[in-house]
Amino acid sequence: EIRNLEAQLLYLDICTLHRFDCPVRAGMISRLSNITFEDFRDRFMQPLEKVVEAFQDYKIGDFVYRTRHPEIASFVFERALETEAQRATQLARMLQYLNPEYSVDGKALEHILKGRRLAEVFADKALVHQLFTTAESVGIDPAFVWHQRAVFELHHRGSDLRSALSSINKALELANKDYTSLKHTKANIYRRLAKETKDAQEREEYHSRAKEVLSPLTKTARDSYPVTLLVEVMIDELECNLGLGANEEAREEPNEERPALPLLMHEIKSKLDENTVKFPHDVHLLKASARFSKVLSKFPESKSILEKASKIDPGNGQIAVLLARALSKAGQLGDAKAILTNCNKVRGTQVEVHFELAMLLIREDEEKNDEAIYHHLKRSFKSGDTRYRSRFELARFCYLHGRIDEAKKLFGELRKCKASPHEKSRVRHVVKGQSRDNAQFRGTIESVKPGYCWIRSYEFDETIFAHSSAFENDKKMKTGSGVTMTMAFTYKGPQAKSVA
Q: How far apart are CA 241 and CA 260, in angstroms?
């Protein structure tokens, strides 16, 4: 318990800033509470020593305060300020005393005014709009403030989307440069308006406006956000056309004769393929791709739509891949292979078609289709591109089918690729036996290092990496010990699992 009143107020200020994810620097607290670091050390260190950490951050050249944990900061903020009015008053005080001309204070003020976070904290919208008004009066960038008004309305449980649209348009008028984030928010508002309207023509107009805002952003984007949102809007359109919209009253009757449907499917698949290469392993694109697959699987007529589209344009790789997946899921593996093979004949080598063919052949019979799989995987990427999964599948295949030197070269390239360390180390593809159980391999521990070892495999006559966590039943890592193991692969190469 903190008995000193000044210490209580100081602790509340630190908790408030920490609750809103702000870096709490000594200079900021000095301007806010008129307490210097020397004051803190001499007068407040003892009463706050168990709840506040104070240390010097040499990167920023200032002392920093923080609570023991952000959740503690949130708890104190909510318990000490029980009503929304009290919380708004505390934040308004910070807006008035922090100086946006100091970069440190400016960043803290931006954290406090984040619309999404305020939507989570306040049910009373009037209190938040008063905070935004205060923010403008103390000199915070009005374009930023109006942007956060829009974000607040977009995410509040009692959202007013018309007000959000008006706010983001005001922000765009006031912005002194072309802010991608503002346009991204505007597209999100159009997307929400499309979801909530019951009028089909109005919904189509909102989808069209969202795409108009996003399309130019995708050409210069340095991350996946604009294209992911564009794809999500297009999937929304597809759902509505297929009669799968989330809004029951807004759903349309599915109509597989609509000529726009295969074109829309092609466009979505094309955007996903193009940008998965540009932003490999991007989680947002992966989620959008999974949603697209789920939408197609929900609609039984999608296969017949794709079949008609394929007959019109048999060389279209995106349509061919989607149709092949639908046919494969329906158990028509031969037809799926035929569609993909014909697609490449019509329009020449298409890397995505070769990759899909290889994966179909692997699922059919990896041993029997050895040469064909190798042929297609070799053509599933191009020199210098970022189709890392294609390279990985070829490396794995080569290792298991006697092309060890080629596999090592490919794994070497993958180790140097731009994927994250987590992605490079992620274990995938446990090797299966003929009965579809995990295949068992034998070997001898050849060398032991802290936390891992290398096992000489009898089957491959190669050393395989094994982390200490892979050892089971108290099996010890000891040089010369014989072991059995299962085997999987990462981007770095083969890896032993379940070592006993």
A: 9
Q: How many angstroms separate the CA atoms of 418 and 225, rounded? A: 19
The side-by-side arrangement of strands in the sheet containing 62-67 is 24-25, 62-67, 52-57
Q: Percentage helix, strand, coil, to 5, in the chain?
A: 60, 10, 30
How many CA within 13 A on the CB side of residue 272?
28
Q: Report the DSSP pairing between strands 62-67 and 24-25.
A: antiparallel
Three-state DSSP class for residue 270: helix
Angstrom distance (rounded) from CA 492 to CA 425: 7
Output the six-digit token pair for 227: 């294209």
Cβ atoms of residues 144 and 170 within 8 Å: no
Tokens of 496: 């032993």
Show the tokens assigned to 74.
Answer: 């949130």
Distance (Å, rounded) from C-alpha 306 to C-alpha 31?
Answer: 65
Q: What are the distances in angstroms from CA 75 to CA 25, 81, 216, 336?
A: 21, 10, 43, 57
For 113, phi then psi, to 5°, come to -95, 5
Identify whether the C-beta of residue 361 lies closer than 8 Å to the C-beta of residue 376: yes
Contact 456, 446 (CB under 8 A): yes
Residue 40 to residues 43, 60, 488, Cα–Cα distance (Å)? 5, 19, 55
* 113 within 8 A of 144, measured Cβ to Cβ: yes
**CA–CA dist 126, 163 (Å, integer):** 13
What sections of 52-114 are H helices per DSSP?
70-80, 84-97, 103-112
pLDDT, block means (10 residues), the chain with 500 residues: 66 83 72 68 63 70 75 86 93 83 77 92 95 92 96 95 97 88 97 94 96 94 93 94 62 54 90 90 91 86 86 91 91 94 90 96 93 96 91 96 96 92 91 87 95 95 94 86 96 95
Q: Are 265 and 308 in contact (CB under 8 A)?
A: no
Helix (H, G, I), strand (E, B) or coil at 168: helix
Distance between CA atoms of residues 139 and 124, nearest Å: 24
Rounded Cα distance, 10 and 17, in Å: 11
> Which pLDDT does position 247 carry in this prediction?
53
Q: Are 417 and 424 in contact, with CB atoms under 8 Å apart?
A: yes
Q: Taking the complete model, does pTM exceed 0.85, yes or no?
A: no
Tell me the C-alpha distance between 499 and 300, whole Å: 45
pLDDT at 488: 97
Residue type, 352: E
User: What integer pLDDT is reported at residue 2 of this predicted model?
Assistant: 47
Give the burial class of 136: count Cβ atoms within 10 A of its Cβ; 0-12 exposed, 13-18 middle, 19 or more buried. Answer: middle
What's residue 1's pLDDT?
Answer: 46
